[in-house]
Amino acid sequence: MIKVGDTLPVATLMEYIEVEGNGCSLGPNPVDVQQATTGKTVAIFAVPGAFTPTCSAQHVPGFVAQAAEFKAAGVDEIWCVAVNDAFVMGAWARDQKTAGAVRMLADGDATFTKATGLTLDLTGKGLGLRSNRYSMLVKDGKVVQLNVEEGGKLAVSDAATLLAQVRG
């Protein structure tokens, strides 16, 4: 499993953007993890799935609500990662009103999730291989803080906890 001090794995996530602009097309756009984190401070949180109850009611809304505080504390971007396709993540972004606050990034085939070792097997529940719920702070591609949830809870990977860690 990835740990504090490790470099993020080589992977490409996908992002669906609602409105064309800033050189981005509407269709799924590749996001090279290494390139996108170089020289930046990024708060990343992962969820087991888009539109799932805890993720939609608490996890994403917390980061959206505190996006300005993260930016004021020196975080360049906030990413939400889930093992879903880019179209689902785009629809969820629209539903959660994340534009300008949180980038909703799809790990459709779980390449990034497998490489971090933060997988969650929900096959018996009809969801297949998913991401564990976690949050991490990444500076210049290296993990400086990692909060992994146990047993499906939302106790250590929430926005308030990571923001407190960012502020030191």
From TrEMBL:
Question: Is the keyword Oxidoreductase assigned to this protein?
Answer: yes
Active site as annotated: C55
Which keywords label this protein? Antioxidant, Oxidoreductase, Peroxidase, Redox-active center
InterPro entries xref list: PRX5-like, Redoxin, Thioredoxin-like_sf, Thioredoxin_domain
The kind of enzyme this is, by top-level EC class, is oxidoreductase
Entry's Gene Ontology cellular component terms: cytoplasm
Biological process (GO), any one: cell redox homeostasis
Q: Which domain of life is it from?
A: Bacteria
Q: Which reaction does it catalyse?
A: a hydroperoxide + 2 glutathione = an alcohol + glutathione disulfide + H2O
Q: What is its EC number?
A: 1.11.1.27
One GO molecular-function entry: thioredoxin peroxidase activity
Q: Which residues form the Thioredoxin domain?
A: 2-168
User: Is Oxidoreductase found in the keyword set?
Assistant: yes
Question: What family classification does the UniProt entry report for this protein?
Answer: Belongs to the peroxiredoxin family. Prx5 subfamily.
The entry's function note states:
Thiol-specific peroxidase that catalyzes the reduction of hydrogen peroxide and organic hydroperoxides to water and alcohols, respectively. Plays a role in cell protection against oxidative stress by detoxifying peroxides.
Official protein name in the record: Glutathione-dependent peroxiredoxin
Taxonomic source organism: Giesbergeria anulus
